[in-house]
Specification:
The protein has a single domain, classed as Spore Coat Polysaccharide Biosynthesis Protein SpsA, Chain A (Alpha-Beta Complex). 34% of the residues lie in helices and 16% in strands. The chain contains 11 helices and 11 strands. The strands form 2 sheets. Strands 3-2-1-4-9-6-10 form a 7-stranded mixed sheet. It has a 4-stranded mixed sheet with strand order 5-11-7-8. Strand 7 and strand 8 form a beta hairpin. This is Glycosyl transferase family 2.
Length: 318
């Protein structure tokens, strides 16, 4: 299964207008994509409900299989670093599900579970694994929660789970601000909304898929169905589809995810989609020593993980 293409921007604008004006005939003429139709079904259901208290954050992690990589041990070490960032969170109310053909080494933690992937899919099977993970939500004994698809080589900032569960944003959260690191070059940049001084900067959610945590109501079948349809698209569609579903996303208060490029086994590299991100990091690289130190404090490298396989945060130069 290939990634579902994004709908055209004019189509999205027209559909948003039709929904805002409650023009059912316009909506029908626009022929919503399956993800948009799933969003509208969830929107209709949510219109009469008060958002419940969210009690957990659930991370869904599609892991590339060993037959598709050159260094399986490096892949599993990066997964361990990702999971260690969850374990280190100062709020323990989270779960993580990893989907892969082979079970990787996993910490002895009941919050971390493995979902076997058995469908023979040639090429990039990330989207099939995301479909399996979102379908698996119905098999989990979950309270109302936030669900976040998360790449197996990204890092979550300390305190992010606590912020989500304390703030209780009705629709969920968007990683508007985050860090992008080019491991090969040893540089790191802040991704955030453009400013007058930096009009070409991009928000994090336009660069990385670990960018959205959506409110999920396990007792609503439309909720998991929407998450499944949404995650078949590129991450740039997430805020639009969430808003269409009545789950408008609130930005997290600080840079919350660190995305590492050029480490040798990126999904994006296999799809030929890393070069512009490399240029982004070089354009907006951070060299200030105090800022780099603060980033290292927010994304500490776990002592239990092999340091040779983890990104070394860059030090200030000159």
């Amino acid at each position: 299964m290939a990634q579902v293409p994004a709908t055209p921007k004019w189509h999205r604008a027209a559909l948003r207008a039709a929904v805002a004006l409650n023009r059912e005939n316009w909506i029908d003429r626009l022929t919503p994509a399956p993800s948009e139709a799933a969003a509208l079904r969830l929107r209709d259901t949510l219109s009469t409900r008060v958002p419940p208290l969210r009690k957990q954050v659930v991370f869904l992690i599609p892991l590339v299989g060993p037959e598709s990589v050159d260094d399986w041990e490096a892949v599993t070490a990066r997964l361990s670093a990702t999971l260690d960032c969850f374990i280190a969170q100062n709020d323990p109310h989270w779960q993580a599900v990893i989907c892969c053909q082979d079970r990787p080494p996993l910490p002895d933690d009941p919050r971390i579970t493995f979902l076997p992937y058995t469908a023979p899919t040639p090429g990039n099977d990330k989207w099939m694994k995301l479909a399996a993970l979102t379908a698996h939500l119905d098999n989990m004994d979950l309270p109302p929660c936030y669900v976040m698809s998360f790449d197996a080589d990204d890092l979550l900032r300390q305190g992010s789970v606590r912020e989500m569960l304390r703030r209780q944003a009705p629709g969920g959260y968007l990683v508007q601000s985050g860090y992008v690191m080019d491991e090969a070059a040893g540089t790191i940049a802040l991704a955030d909304v453009p400013t007058l001084r930096q009009p070409l900067r991009k928000p994090f959610w336009k660069l990385c898929g670990s960018c959205a945590a959506l409110g999920h109501d396990p007792d609503l079948p439309q909720s998991a169905a929407f998450l499944q349809a949404m995650t078949q698209h590129e991450h740039r569609m997430f805020p639009y589809l969430a808003a269409l579903a009545g789950r408008r996303l609130s930005p997290l208060s600080e840079p919350s995810v660190l995305y590492v490029l050029n480490h040798g086994e990126n999904f994006g590299a296999r799809r030929g989609r890393v070069s512009f991100k490399t240029r982004f990091v070089e354009r907006f690289r951070i060299d200030d020593a105090d800022e780099l130190s603060a980033i290292a404090d927010g994304f500490p490298v776990p002592e239990a993980t092999d340091e040779d396989t983890l990104p070394d945060l860059p030090e200030a130069t000159g």
